[in-house]
C-alpha cells in the first residue's frame, strides 16, 4: 500500500492490484485494506457478525448478518480474489467518499468489481 502496510492477494491478481494502488495514489487517493483471509478467520467473522450457533456460522444467509458476511468456504477472500478497501489511512471505503468514487470509476480497468451491498468490498467477480 502506498501509505504503508500491504494487501495479500492471489498471485493471479497481484500485478493488477499493485497497478490499481499506484494509479489511485497518483490521483491522491490512498487505498489499502484486507485481502486474503484463511477459513478460520472467515469463521471468526461469521461468529462476530452472524452469531455463534452452528446455523449462524455455516447456514444462515449472509444478508442476515450485520454486516453481511459470506459463509465459510464461499468467500472470495478465502481464495485471495477480494479486497475490503480502506480509504486514506482511515476506515473502510464508504459510498460517497473519494475512494469509492475513484474505485467506481477505475477498478474495473484493473479487473475488480464492487459488491453493491458493501462499498468497501471489491473482487474479481463482484461477489
Description:
This protein has 127 residues and is of the alpha+beta class. The protein is built from four helices and four strands; from the N terminus they run αβααβαββ. The chain has helices at 11-26, 39-50, 54-58, 98-106; strands spanning 31-34, 82-87, 113-115, 118-123. The protein has a four-stranded antiparallel beta sheet. β3 and β4 (118-123) form a beta hairpin. The protein is globular. It starts with 10 loop residues before the first helix and ends with a strand.
The separation of the N and C termini measures: 23 Å
The overall average pLDDT, rounded, is 95
Q: Assess the beta-strand content as a share of residues.
A: 5-15%
The chain-level structural class is: alpha+beta
Q: Helical proportion? A: 25-40%
Q: How would you spell out the order of helices and strands? A: HEHHEHEE
| Major beta-sheet overview | 4 strands, antiparallel
Query: How many separate helices?
Result: 4
Give a count of the beta strands, DSSP E runs of length 2 or more. Answer: 4
Global shape = globular
List unreliable stretches of 5+ residues.
none
- Rg result: 14 Å
Strand order of the largest sheet: 1-2-4-3
Amino acid at each position: 500500500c502506498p501509505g504503508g502496510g500491504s494487501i495479500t492477494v492471489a498471485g493471479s491478481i497481484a500485478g493488477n492490484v499493485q497497478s490499481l494502488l499506484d494509479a489511485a495514489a497518483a490521483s491522491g487517493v490512498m487505498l489499502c485494506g484486507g485481502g486474503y483471509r484463511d477459513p478460520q478467520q472467515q469463521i471468526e467473522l461469521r461468529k462476530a457478525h452472524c452469531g455463534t450457533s452452528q446455523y449462524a456460522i455455516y447456514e444462515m444467509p449472509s444478508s442476515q448478518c450485520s454486516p453481511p458476511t459470506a459463509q465459510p468456504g464461499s468467500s472470495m477472500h478465502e481464495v485471495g480474489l477480494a479486497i475490503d478497501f480502506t480509504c486514506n489511512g482511515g476506515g473502510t471505503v464508504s459510498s460517497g467518499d473519494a475512494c469509492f468514487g475513484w474505485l467506481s470509476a477505475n477498478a474495473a480497468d484493473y479487473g475488480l468489481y464492487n459488491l453493491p451491498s458493501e462499498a468497501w468490498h471489491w473482487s474479481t467477480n463482484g461477489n
